[in-house]
Write a structure and sequence with these properties.
Strand order of the largest sheet of chain A: 5-4-3-6-7
Oligomer: homodimer
Number of helices of chain A: 12
CATH architecture of the largest domain in chain A: 3-Layer(aba) Sandwich
Largest sheet of chain A: 5 strands, parallel
CATH superfamily of the largest domain in chain A: HUPs
Strand content of chain A: 5-15%
Largest interface: A-B, 30 and 30 residues
Shape of chain A: globular
Structural class of chain A: alpha/beta
Order of helices and strands of chain A: EEHEHEHEHHHHEHEHHHH
Distance between the termini of chain A: 66 Å
CATH topology of the largest domain in chain A: Rossmann fold
CATH class of the largest domain in chain A: Alpha Beta
Number of strands of chain A: 7
Chain lengths: ~300, ~300
């Protein structure tokens, strides 16, 4: 099969075909284009400011390592900005240890301060304990739900300690669209834009610079940049509702390329028109923003602790 | 397995288990409940008025026959309202002829005037011709798209001729949610509530009294009322985008009962907050409301006619 030449430089052989636009890119142009898209995403949604103190949430998986690498490149142009990395160790035995090792190596090579915080230090228990002691089951929660909520909270804690002005997460195009569709199918009351900068007093905004970047391009970029893959899968992964939504959307977007972008653009155009409340409600325990009286994280931590005592 | 007794009458044996609510119903209570839900849907969304001249769009399939039967029952309480039926023959050989025969029998038994209009009479061609002559393919449209757009237009034409104040269609809970999700995945610019009464000058509103009724309950009601099933499948059915969305949503709602309701309620709560334009734009050719200069139906008819000439 003759693939012709790269649509961008018109010289080298393409290694990537972008199905929804018909563009073919060589590895050099692909890498350039990849970074350009993240830069454009940041500027289109005004995700970052020139003087931000950014904490990048890194798990050690390819998405967050790629985010760290790209933000590192982009940040060179903004001498007043600062880049830090934070990693939350939820305590899943060997799974997390492996990825932490990779992470430390990469942060070190890029001279980025890496701050680590564990569930054990922060909450007094590990996710491993919660699962093994049958507490997750007793609470009727799957481990992914507990992990997601508590990691998010732990991240805010580190970010506050570090005086961050913004948290950057590695949510991808797929993550964002999956979450929107899940929100609809679960009838979530307050659907808010995901990974966009929402300013409010004493709230550290969370942004997702990879929100327009599809998974396959992240994987390819990681490969081309020699970023090591996390080969192990989390032993607790079975958040089935998201799995089904993910499978459907993956197949659908494969058959009708561009559908994820269409969904994201359309849905966010709709969300934009909905007035968002100015006032932020606060959790009675931790003071972080929440729609409830007590935030979901504090609620889960309290339930786990009371079950651990008995 | 002991199913216990009907949750409603507490006496008879249940024949239906409503998974999302845990309610078990006997056949008598199911039928009563079925009609009650349609009545509640009509009143919740103010779909019909006491003095409406209603044209029911009937295809001869079970959904539209059930709608006709239920509206017939409900309409007895509103002597000032009138009920008519309209059927569009798109010209798919034996497929349509079968369902038309059933339809005529039922309309006759209920003493409801049935008005028939064919693509051939209205547009000068049948859908069968358009497919057989390869015109659909040349236009890059699948037969379902052509059929859907032109049936909708034909229906408005009959309704105008009959002086209808409202058109009732048999869109079900599944149809509505599928269409919303398809709208998102296709990036449709103007997503509007489906099957809700939208009044505008010189526009006949379209309403869907079965918009909260799931398919399986319609099938059961049809069975219990002895409404004959259309056994043949349309020979052109292969609207694959909708098929995939349908399959996903069906499986998802089976696993997580109530998801379709959650989606519908959530999404419509969002749509509600979006201001709808008061002014209606009109097609330059037919004068019917459209977001474009020339409506999709007129555009398709023109393209087909020009290809038929050559």
């Amino acid at each position: 099969m003759n693939l012709g030449v790269c649509s961008s430089c018109g010289k080298r052989s393409p290694i990537y075909f972008r199905r929804y636009s018909g563009v073919k890119l060589c590895s050099t142009c692909f890498k350039g284009d990849f970074i350009k898209r993240v830069r454009r995403t940041i500027s289109r949604y005004e995700l970052l400011r020139y003087d931000d103190r950014i904490v990048v949430a890194v798990s050690g998986g390819k998405d967050s390592l790629v985010l760290l690498k790209v933000l590192y490149e982009l940040e060179q142009d903004f001498p007043k900005s600062e880049l830090l990395a934070a990693s939350i160790d939820e305590g899943i035995d060997s799974y997390r240890l492996d990825s932490l090792r990779t992470l430390r190596k990469i942060a070190n090579a890029l001279h980025i301060e890496l701050h680590e915080l564990s569930f054990k230090d922060l909450y007094g228990f590990t996710l491993g304990e919660v699962v093994k002691l049958g507490i997750a089951k007793k609470l009727g929660l799957n481990p992914c739900t507990i992990c997601g909520v508590l990691r998010r909270k732990a991240l805010v804690t580190v970010a506050r300690r570090l005086g961050a002005t913004v948290i950057a997460t590695a949510h991808t195009l797929e993550d964002v669209v999956q979450t929107y569709l899940l929100n609809l199918l679960r009838g979530e009351k307050n659907i808010r834009p995901i990974g966009l900068r929402r300013e409010a007093e004493d709230v550290i905004p969370r942004v997702a610079p990879l929100r327009l970047t599809p998974q396959r391009e992240i994987a390819l970029y990681a490969y081309l940049e020699g970023i090591p893959f996390q080969s192990k899968t989390c032993p607790y992964t079975h958040e089935s509702m998201r799995d089904e939504v993910r499978n459907f959307l993956t197949l659908y977007d494969y058959k009708y390329p561009g559908s994820l972008y269409a969904f994201l653009n359309m849905f966010e155009r709709i969300l934009e028109k909905i007035p968002q409340p100015d006032e932020v409600n606060r959790c009675e325990i931790c003071g972080e923003p929440t729609d409830r009286r007590i935030c979901r994280a504090c609620e889960i931590v309290l339930s786990i602790k009371s079950l651990l005592k008995n």
